[in-house]
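Here is one chain, start to finish.
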Amino acid sequence: MFVIQNIRSYVNYEMENSHIDYVYAVDHFVKAGETETSSGMSVNPGGKGLNQSIALARAGVEVCHAGMVGEEGRILIDRCIENGVNVDRVRMIQGRSGHTIIQVDQSGENSILLFGGANRCMTASFIDEVLADFGRGDMILLQNEINLLDVIIDKAYDKGLRIVLNPSPYDDALLTCDLSKVSYFLLNEIEGAQMTERSQTDAQATEITVKPGPKEILREIRRKYPDAKTVLTLGAEGAYYDDSEDVYYQSAFPVKAVDTTAAGDTFTGYFIASVMNGLSPEDSLRLASKAASIAVTRPGALDSIPWRKEVLESLGGVAGVQYPPGLGLNRRRRGGDPSRGGRNSKHHRTDPVSELHRG
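Its structure:
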């Protein structure tokens, strides 16, 4: 599914995937040929698009969600409505909704197997129906859990929309897309390595065999797509924002992770909502990082996504916090405390990426 954000009226329109998560607590990720007993199991509504729509809504943005769900997908629609997300353009079709099998290990890391289901039933006519409501100056947020992604990118670009892409999961479908039309990339280090073709994998590979660092990823994305802005997330090692002029680094807020399933989607929703509200890249990174740090301390996907008020209150307890303008909170300038984490730094484009540090 995809998200369209109307910058002029601050309405977010989302046409993306929704699916049901089957989550299993495990000691370690299952290996080839291994049978492992799960210590717990839960069934939850999810999907990158659904997670991101709800993260946007909880970050204070009006959201309209569009997409396809199967016959058992009422739970997905209800969760949108409960969070104030408009579902007028969600279609229920015959067949199964998309779903995932998620393993969560003792450290809170996850491994995900995805079945597309109804999310892979998009049609060109449905895309045209949705895009008819939007035009130049609007923003569309896309992931790779739906079919016809290349068609959506081309049609959105032709209408003058700014395109934000979260290239997850990374697969051959992305090779058919004209990524030069993308305005923002939001991705993690694995997806960055895959997108820049700096890692080598094959059909039997379970791990990336060549792992470039963030410097190499950002440099290569900038070389291939010089007009795009890139947000690269590194989990516990923080996040970078990179454009044609500046690079910002945001260190992670130190927490004990319980479940990282929705961390990336929480980060994406809060970052895009912050951009929509006119915040700087630096402030957007800080809010998104704080929101993601809260999400990983809770089990589950949707239930782990914090509300904006909680994120702002949590930032208020961090030494050196600089509240973004327009958030209704007094700005306080105090000396930074490196032990508290969440520090922010800026690098000018005097020597592309060579100045970057890992905190």
